[in-house]
Design brief:
The protein has 260 residues and is α+β, with helices and mostly antiparallel strands. It folds into two domains: 4-128, no CATH class; 142-220, OB fold (Dihydrolipoamide Acetyltransferase, E2P) (Beta Barrel), CATH 2.40.50.140. It is 28% helix and 32% strand. It has helices at 27-42, 69-81, 93-108, 181-185, 228-241, 248-255; strands at 4-12, 14-15, 18-19, 53-57, 61-68, 113-118, 126-128, 142-157, 163-168, 174-178, 195-205, 211-220. A hairpin with a 5-residue loop joins strand 8 and strand 9. The longest helix is centred in the N-terminal third of the chain and has 16 residues, at 27-42. The chain starts with a strand and ends in a 5-residue tail after the last helix.
């Protein structure tokens, strides 16, 4: 069974001296908060929410969600960025919009605040109150790039919005690249669960090198080979070339004029 990450969203407030709870919240506010949570989790990529499992729990008004890996891999980066208040320009646009909306409301209320916590120990709790100051930093952090990525396709397709989930070689991070149904349908090779070289257009963070708003341009030919025989030939040639050098380290230092 796929591992699920717990993400809790809390809405804390008082109405006429009475604490806001699942029993005292009005239907309109209930619907608005839950809709905003769904938009926050899905982000501007429109990540699928069918496998996200919600439940309401006591403790002000708290919605606990169980988030599958593919969705959490997108959400986790933004939750970590929210440890800094100058991060709004670095977030997924839809998530930044929700944070701005919650913060604006919190600044107008004496008791109103919003919180996000997760079961991931590497992600710190997030609290939005009238004292917080989430904003866009001075540096424009995201630049448009075109690059190649290598990884394993772990999911692809989509009923309304087509995309490809690629687990990157090396980091193990899963990125979601938007595509078109026509392009994926016309693929002659089976890409699912195979390693691919993908040409993508995206926005890349200048410091962290993270990618967002990723769009698949094309799959490129990818046939990595390790030629053992050729490597042995190179080693043999090198050994012959260095046969008359008793100490290769000393020889290189002498060429450098004694410099290390």
């Amino acid at each position: 069974m796929e591992a699920l990450t717990t993400v809790e969203f809390s809405l804390r407030d008082q109405i006429d001296g009475v604490e806001l709870t699942p029993a005292t919240i009005g239907l309109a506010r209930f619907n608005e908060f839950h809709r905003q949570i769904a938009e926050f989790i899905a982000g501007s990529e429109g990540l699928p929410l069918d496998e996200v499992r919600p439940r309401v729990e006591p403790g002000s008004h708290k919605l606990v969600t169980l988030v599958p890996f593919l969705v959490m891999s997108s959400l986790a980066g933004d939750l970590r960025r929210l440890e800094r208040e100058d991060c709004l320009g670095e977030l997924d646009p839809k998530r930044a919009e929700i944070i701005e909306r919650w913060q604006s409301k919190a600044k107008k209320g004496d008791f109103l605040s919003y919180g996000i916590t997760t079961s991931e120990q590497t992600i710190k709790p997030i609290n939005l109150t009238r004292e917080t100051d989430y904003r866009v930093g001075e540096i424009v952090p995201w630049v448009k790039v075109e690059r190649y990525i290598v990884g394993t396709v772990v999911d692809m397709g989509g009923r309304s919005k087509a995309n490809v989930h690629i687990k990157l070689n090396g980091t193990g991070e899963t990125v979601v690249a938007q595509s078109s149904q026509n392009y994926l349908r016309d693929q002659e090779e089976n890409r699912l669960y195979h390693t691919v070289l993908a040409r993508v257009q995206a926005e890349q963070h200048w410091r962290t090198r993270d990618l967002r708003s990723i769009r698949l341009v094309s799959f490129e030919p990818y046939e990595p080979r390790f030629d053992v025989a050729a490597l042995d030939r190179f080693a043999e040639t090198g050994a012959k070339a260095w046969a008359d050098v008793p100490d290769s380290g000393t020889w290189v230092r002498e060429l450098r004029g004694g410099l290390e």
